[in-house]
Structure formats: structure tokens, C-alpha cells
Amino acid sequence: MPVAIITGASKGLGRALAGALAARGWDLVLDARTTEVLRRTAAELEAHGTHVTAVSGDVTDAGHRAELVAAAEKLGGVDLLVSNASALGAEPLVRLDALPLEGLRRALEVNLVAALGLVQEALPLLRASEAGTVITVSSDAAAEAYETWGGYGASKAALDHLAAVLGEEEPGLRVWAVDPGDMATDLYAAAVPDDDDPRPAPAGVVPAFLRLLDERPASGRYASPSLLVEGR
Description:
The chain is α/β, with parallel strands linked by helices. Helices cover about 45% and strands about 15% of the residues.
């Protein structure tokens, strides 16, 4: 069975993607900070008949990242690494003149530094896979200037560039930065709690990720809405 590591997998997009992969027979190593929620998620996904290992912790901790990769190695290796765990930097989001620098550092540590650290830890196994793939979850805030989204957007823009360079340096892998578009998630609710406009559920975005895995286009940045429209 192919093996995937997914960070931020106890709910939202990470949970939805994990469920879709489990339904396809993937073995999974799931990360989140909330131990009980993560364990419940893993137990639910095991109903698909796959192996699901829950490893709770903080992706900014090097020891935790090593645990994730070690757990995947026990399942057979790493075929897919999804860096989905994210931090906003401030909840709710604020303008740059009020953004706490510690919050910005946290967003950079979670969204960028930890993502690279996990890639570095997993690279030997990814290179050994016949279909080694890295997915970094991006945001339209990485490419567009939205008021109050500056710190988060900057961290995701840096992550996009990191993914682009990784794709050049590792031609044997597929490296995709994926902008999922707007979704109804706890992260978005924390970012903009006064926004009551309905947004699509994360499960509606997952087919875009599955299309990438099925078709394996060149490394690069992809927007889920475009993939969903083109795939109809």
C-alpha cells in the first residue's frame, strides 16, 4: 500500500484528504496537536481497512517530525508528504501595524520552517518511492494582497517559493503547492470570525488533490478551483 504523512489531519482539509486516501487503500500517518481528536479521526479512518497511525505533537518540534517519518517507515516508506498544518499569526487576523511579531514568527515556524524540516527528514524515503510526492497547502493570500492577511500570506508565499525550488532540486519527485481556495474550516473561522458568508466544505476540494495524484502533472503551483473546473 502507498503511505502518506499528512499534518494538520484531525479536521478540515487534512481530515477530508486523509479520508479520501484511506478509501483508496492508502496507509496513513496523521499529525495534529489535539491528541483525542486525532485518535478519533484515526479510528474512524481505519474502518476502510488501512493502517492509520496517529502521532500527536507540534510540527515545529524536530523530534515530533522524526516520529512521523519513523512511523511511516514502519508502514513501508513515504510516498506522499502533505504539509497542511498552518498557523495564522493572529486570531482574528489584524493589520500589519498591529501584527505581533511573535505571532509572525509562529506562522513562519509552522507554515514554512517546519514544512522544510519535515521534507528534509522524509527525503530519503521520498526519493526511494516510485512516486514520491510533496504537497504544500498554499493560499490565495500567498499571491494576492488582502488586508489583514499579510503575515499569513507572507508565510505561504515563502512556502510556495520553497516548493518551487524543491521541485527544481528534486526532479525525481513531484512537488505541488496547492491553493485550495476558500473553505469552511476552523482556521478560516478563527481568522475572520465575523464573516458569515457560506463557504464550501473541505471535502469538496479533495477531488482536486486526487486529480493531481492520478495525473501527476509537472511540479508547480496549482489552484484547486481550476483543477475542479477543468476536471468536469
